[in-house]
Design a protein that fits this description.
By secondary structure, this protein is α/β, with parallel strands linked by helices. The protein is built from 4 helices and 12 strands. The chain has a domain of 133 residues: Rossmann fold (3-Layer(aba) Sandwich). It is elongated and about 60 Å long. The protein starts with 10 loop residues before the first strand and ends in an 8-residue tail after the last helix.
């Protein structure tokens, strides 16, 4: 793991995992350590994520840090030359241009710390996260605990029947599952879809 010591060469750090795995908690921890080290930091988050606050990054444990909501990653390039650390939460909600923006910032000498879901509710790579992990100097994958068997969880299983890729929610909408429990849950859902209803409205 990279330290909060300022690296003039710049770097990209990615913290990824499922829902409830502590991604935002780790992001906030690293950013606050940078603050303690007297470094100038700026935090960004997507405008779509307003679950807890419009202008703060908030973890599920309700630790928080002030942020700037943006819809276009290019806005991050407006940070001043005195900024040493840039944090990005819920990176999966941004488009692919986020990768080039983070590269430009790192090339300027900025330490860029990114947190986001690595896979969506279907278990597929999510948004710009795969490319961010590929170009990062450091990647940390964190895990939740499977609510069904207690193993390490790396999947965000959606409890809602919505098929929308982006669906904000907490424990009433998602649950963390391990591979086995996730595959079993998805198999049941697919079976339910294909099973004809016995009592349909006439």
């Amino acid at each position: 793991m990279f330290s909060e010591n300022y690296k003039k060469t710049g770097c990209i750090e990615v913290v990824c995992g499922s829902m409830f795995s502590g991604k935002t908690e780790e992001l906030i921890r690293r950013l606050k350590r940078a603050q303690f080290a007297k470094q100038k930091i700026v935090i960004f988050k997507p405008t779509v994520d307003n679950r807890y606050s419009d202008v703060e990054v908030v973890s599920h444990d309700f630790h928080k840090i002030t942020s700037t909501p943006i819809s276009d990653p290019a806005e991050m390039l407006k940070v001043g030359p005195d900024v040493q650390v840039v944090g990005v939460d819920e990176a999966q909600f941004f488009d692919e241009s986020l990768v080039d923006v983070c590269q430009q910032l790192a090339n300027r000498g900025v330490r860029v710390i990114i947190a986001g879901l690595d896979t969506d509710f279907l278990g597929q790579p999510f948004g710009p996260m795969p490319r961010l992990m590929a170009v990062a100097e450091d990647v940390q994958k964190v895990h939740a605990i499977c609510v069904r068997c207690g193993a390490l969880a790396n999947h965000s299983h959606r409890l809602s029947k919505s098929e929308d890729l982006v669906l904000l929610g907490e424990k009433n909408v998602y649950e963390p599952l391990c591979r086995d429990c996730y595959n079993a849950a998805r198999a049941r859902e697919e079976q339910e879809k294909s099973t004809p209803r016995l009592f349909e409205d006439q």
